[in-house]
Amino acid sequence: MITNVLQAAQEIPSIVMTPATGTSNAARIILRGAGQEQSGIQFDSAVGVYIDNVYQPRITGQFFDFFDVDQLEVLRGPQGTLYGRNTSGGAIKLTTRTPDLEKFTAAGDLAYGSYQMLDGRLYMSTPIVAGKVSASISAVSRKRDGWTSDPNYTEKLNDKNQQAFRGKLYLAPSDALTVAIAYDLAKDRSDPGIGTLIQSLGGLGVVNPNAVPGRDLFTTELSGPAYNKNDTNGLSVNASYVVSPELTINSITGTRNQRATIAVPFVQTAAGLNIGSSYQYKDKFWSQELNGTFQVDRLKGVAGFYYFWEHGLQRDDAPYTAVATRDTRDRLTKTWAGFGQATYEIFENLGLTAGIRYTHEEANFTQFYFNQLTFPQSASTTFTAWTPKFGIDYQALPNLLLYASFTKGFKSGGWNNVSPSTNIGGPPGTIAGPAVYGPENVKSYEAGAKFMTDDNRLRLNVAVFQADYDGMQLPVFFPGTTNTYTSNAAGARVRGIELEPTWQITDVFQIYGNASFDTSKYTSAFNCALYNSTIVNCGAGGRDNRIKGVVPAKSLLGLVITPQLNIPGSVRLATSWAHNGAYYNNVSNTLPLVQTPRADLFDASISWQSEDARWRVTLEGKNIFDHRYALESLQISSPVQASITTYPNDPRMVDVRVRFSY
């Protein structure tokens, strides 16, 4: 059962989904080349995550984990003409279960496994006023020991300690009106994500002797202070009113507060000095959407208005920043949008779709470098965009749908914090300040087919796409310096084909899977830094690098067997093979060690379910052959001490899970 965003990674073609470097629950999501992996208040994701229709802006905390997830939907390509905030890469939508109005229901499970893993989950739903009011609660607790050894600690690093709670109230006072109110809170006290130094290309005789390729990835000398405290709570209200059979009005209100304190080392010098990142931040947002869905004869569609307000404050702090410095960053975002999309059936089985969105966003930013200036530096700008969509779909046969679409996408720009003393190429004496970067625009073309046999045993979805990016947002360097910032570095193109088959061969034997084959290239020149900080053209006409985070080949093959045995209850056997081709984790593509290598992972499980389906016992194993590799790597460019720190995948995990439902 998929209960959070991370667990869906193997089920989705053309996607990279991992924790961001140095974090335990920040979601690094790259879909069809578009993504974001920098946490904090200044960076928005290109792939929007929605919980009960509410957009979640921060990638920190996006691995939401609940036992009441009813549906997970992944939409690939630009989104914005149907709902929510504009995103250039796609959207992941989690919908939680609606409390039952008529009967009491309950479910839960308990699991124990490798590394002292102990998971517990519970869900209960009950009617309060039969047919009118109901409520539910859901709770999750996940704990396990770490698996990374450090000679300076007696306990293993990279442990897990997470808890989450959700309460939901469902009101149906009339046949026309329904209201769902949900409140959730979560805390994370896991280690922040501590890597292993695998290469240190020292200059001036500075070389870390422990940093060697091929070393044990679960042993590290990064013994600097490491801690993580992340608390979040949110409220959503989804209301729907049926005005007539042709028109329904929907209101979606959401708010969330988040506080985090993080310190993590990522480099160690030969002298044993740990260099890392430490900061505190708090973020809150409020959003409101009003939309109407309609259907009149052959015309159906949606039109609406969306408003979003967010304020974030971040402060660099000890131990990796001098206490006296405490540089701060303050971001305020206000955005509104109008959107609409409609489909008209011009002939039987042939429909034309058209949509449009207008986005207006105000980006305000303030930075205060206490040790360099006696005053804060502020800046603001506005971004606007029209993003249309056109599509056609044809029901060629009762079991064959053909479609094609063109969509323009938009991801807003923002502000970089830049130290006043940074040399950004201006006249002598120039004081640097906040530097703006522009929006990321994409033109997406897609065509495909959805097929199912008459007996519903074989289903196949096929899609081909091309995404042309203009002003792709990338981390680059100020000319002549080693200072990074986000910039609209280049044009880029990603092409691919995606396959999603499912075949119920017999009543007891099913094969399922997915596959994607993608190519990528930059279509314009841009500067980036090699490992030694040398500035070169990494784009078209230069090094012609591959786009970071684009996997050339990704596939999943799964088997499910439900043998008919002469025993009480039923047995289910399942296994899967997930393959990922090698891909780069840095813009410059330098040094093979910064690649995530080709990997093949195998999972398997066997479960027994009682005849009344109320009890289930499962023995499950993930990465059963214990394949260990660099899931992602961080390159530090420096003419003095260039280095690479890697963050490995999870080792083999085996557990026994007991579940009940009532």
Radius of gyration: 25 Å
Shape: globular
Looking at CATH, which topology would you report?
Maltoporin, Chain A
Q: Give the total of beta strands.
A: 38
- Alpha-carbon distance between the two ends: 17 Å
Strand content: over 45%
Q: Would you tell me the structural class of the helices and strands?
A: mainly beta
Q: Quick check: average pLDDT? A: 89
- For the record, what is the CATH homologous superfamily label? TonB-dependent receptor, beta-barrel domain
Percent of residues in helices comes to under 10%
Low-confidence stretches: none
CATH architecture: Beta Barrel
Main sheet overview: 22 strands, antiparallel, barrel
Question: How many helical stretches?
Answer: 0
What is the level 1 CATH name? Mainly Beta
Task: Explain the overall architecture.
By secondary structure, the protein is mainly β. Helix content is 0%, strand content 61%. It has a 22-stranded antiparallel barrel. It has a 4-stranded mixed β-sheet with strand order 5-4-7-6, with no helix packed on it. The chain has a 3-stranded antiparallel β-sheet with strand order 1-2-3, with no helix packed on it. The two termini are 17 Å apart.
